[in-house]
């Protein structure tokens, strides 16, 4: 199974389980995760959701092999929810969401933390938003949520540079809350999740609603802007060069592209 689901003490743990693909999101994993969040939101026995991953990655974001297929195959069939549906589920999720980042977090593996109420990171974790190196735009309302979470300049570096951010840096700039040794990560995150889960679910939902409702309009506007930019850039010269370079196992060369591309 590409997503493991376990519930204990009113905490539902969702574990990304494509370790051979660094837990990258293909359409099946997007669908499974979106459905699991919808189910957890509706389950009166679930107070908190905890996200983590198997192997050496939290998630490597979008599966680039499938992205290349989507660009090049007119017959590509998207999933029921896909990426947009997963983000819809994250935006709408009414209960506390905790992330335990066990390893690499690329793309959505970083931007999903904008939706986390608490984020715990292993010292083995590293983060990257590779949007510019893929010739595309930000995603998941990160153009709004990351400046709000990190401050404009740290967010600009994360979103523009396509450089790695260490676990220590992530905590320093506010991307994550607590730094843990790898063997302690899940225990620490679960302990905090279970402590929160002892509280009345109605009150937890009220707290999250009062925190999030004032910014829902900005999140929606950011997503609309990002989606338009992504649609414009996907399949364009820079994105094509990035995906070709990935398939060929080389670094992309954007210097040969037409001016402005």
UniProtKB/TrEMBL annotation:
Keywords: Isomerase, Peroxisome. It comes from the Bacteria. It is found in: Peroxisome. The keyword Plastid does not apply. InterPro entries: ClpP/crotonase-like_dom_sf, ECH/Chromodomain_protein, Enoyl-CoA_hydra/iso. PANTHER family: ENOYL-COA DELTA ISOMERASE 2 (PTHR43684:SF1), PTHR43684. This is Enoyl-CoA hydratase/isomerase family protein.
């Amino acid at each position: 199974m590409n997503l493991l689901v376990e519930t204990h003490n009113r905490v539902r743990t969702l574990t990304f389980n494509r370790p051979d693909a660094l837990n990258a999101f293909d359409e099946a994993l997007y669908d499974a995760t979106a459905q699991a969040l919808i189910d957890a939101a509706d389950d009166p026995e679930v107070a908190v959701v905890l996200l983590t991953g198997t192997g050496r990655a939290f998630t490597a974001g979008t599966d680039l092999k499938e992205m290349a297929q989507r660009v090049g195959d007119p017959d590509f069939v998207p999933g029921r929810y896909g990426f947009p549906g997963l983000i819809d589920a994250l935006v709408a999720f009414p209960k506390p969401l905790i992330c335990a980042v066990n390893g690499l977090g690329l793309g959505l593996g970083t931007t999903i933390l904008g939706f986390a109420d608490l984020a715990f990171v292993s010292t083995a974790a590293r983060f990257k938003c590779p949007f510019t190196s893929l010739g595309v735009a930000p995603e998941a309302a990160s153009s709004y949520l990351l400046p709000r979470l990190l401050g404009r300049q740290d967010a600009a570096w994360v979103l523009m540079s396509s450089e790695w951010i260490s676990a220590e840096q992530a905590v320093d700039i506010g991307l994550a809350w607590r730094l843990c040794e790898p063997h302690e990560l899940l225990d620490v995150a679960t302990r905090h999740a279970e402590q929160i889960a002892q509280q009345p679910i109605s009150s937890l939902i009220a707290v999250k609603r009062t925190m999030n409702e004032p910014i829902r309009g900005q999140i929606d506007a950011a997503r609309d802007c990002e989606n338009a930019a992504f649609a414009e850039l996907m399949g364009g010269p820079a994105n094509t060069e990035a995906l070709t370079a990935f398939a060929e196992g080389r670094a992309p060369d954007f210097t040969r592209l037409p001016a402005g591309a």
